[in-house]
Amino acid sequence: MKxxxxxxxxxxxxxxxxxxxxxxxxxxxxxxxxIARTANFTFASTEEMKRWAEGTSGAYIYTRYGNPTLRIxxxxxxxxxxxEDAVVAASGSAAIxxxxxxxxxxxxxxxxxxxxxxGSYKLLxxxxxxxxxxxxxxxxxxxxxxxxxxxxxxxLYVETPTNPTLRLVDLRAAARFAEEWGLVAVIxxxxxxxxxQKPLAMGFHIALHSASKYxxxxxxxxxxxxxxxxxLMKKVRGNMIxxxxxxxxEAAFLLVRGIKTLxxxxxxxxxxxxxVAKYLAKHPKVARVHYPGLASHPDHRLAKRQMRDFGxxxxxxxxxxxxxARRFCDRVRVFLLAAxxxxxxxxxxxxxxxxxxxxxxxxxxxxxxxxxxxxxxxxLEDAEDLIEDLRQALA
Length: 395
Ligand SMILES: *Cc1c(COP(=O)(O)O)cnc(C)c1O
Description:
This protein is of the alpha/beta class. The chain has 2 domains: 13-259, Type I PLP-dependent aspartate aminotransferase-like (Major domain) (Aspartate Aminotransferase, domain 2, 3-Layer(aba) Sandwich), CATH 3.40.640; 262-394, Aspartate Aminotransferase, domain 1. The chain is built from 15 helices and 12 strands. The chain has a 7-stranded mixed beta sheet, with helices on both faces. Strands 8-9-12-11-10 form a 5-stranded mixed beta sheet. The protein starts with 12 loop residues before the first helix and ends with a helix. The structure holds pyridoxal-5'-phosphate (PLP). Pyridoxal-5'-phosphate is lined by residues 91-93, 117, 119-120, 159, 188, 190-191, 210, 212-213, 222, 224.
């Protein structure tokens, strides 16, 4: 892309992920991106410094405020989400907390879906009450939301598909509700990625990411991002600079490097996941498979409406309960037994020992998690090898 040129509007996600945010049509410009491995930046004159202080200069001053390598990642994520701007952060959790704290103050209320990433749930449960922010939780189907909303409600916060049972929130319906009540609609788009789901095009205001997962995609970096209008991103960036959750340039390099292959990774991972889900659904020791690509999934039709494909996350319940689930996880050879998701390696994990540890039977039931539920992140290995591994581990 020529210096300063905007990505072409008609470009597809694969072209955007490779070219957006990069300027390299000059003679001798490196094709790979450079890491601005620096904490601070020089000024040529006190006049320039004065302009920076007045806010009329676009110059970089200090990496916590911004850095050219971070900016490439921000432009790519903004382009993929169809947003005016984006802000990258040191982790998904930093992006989430800075976004919500930029939007909420003491006395305000937030409505959030109940099945949240564990860290986000604990932020709402433990930190927000200390700040006099009231949290109201709701199921993914948003039933009864009109009873929870009030004059102090500012934000609607959702995750879809949810962890670990992959239930879906109807994004268009949620955005319409937010519009009606003047709420800022925020989604954690980590599981779907902008390749499969474009929340801003469906009326959402901010899309958040744990870029540690699919965006970076190689299980080698912790990173986060928020994308939305320039005005909202200015607020989020302001909060992030003050709270200190800025990204490191080395992490930004890995993130940009990962995003370039996002499209092909998601496409292939979704395809392999469908094959794995079909295999598991027919297996006599499996009670239930939670994968939105299967017609048996309660949100299959909604998934077809609002997602381009069904993604590579799934969960399944083993008939033998916790003992069978532990035996299975201890026997896999290609799948790794590890937390997190979204990388090139296929992973299995037991929610009962990770995201849903120490939850009561009632809380587990509300989340549709059983002691024998296994969560799976399908990677980029050969589908036949993954299925063979499942066969031997379940035998
Ligand atoms: C991992 C994850 C987070 C937290 O992101 P970090 O990068 O680990 O801080 C938030 N939301 C979802 C859905 C996640 O999977």
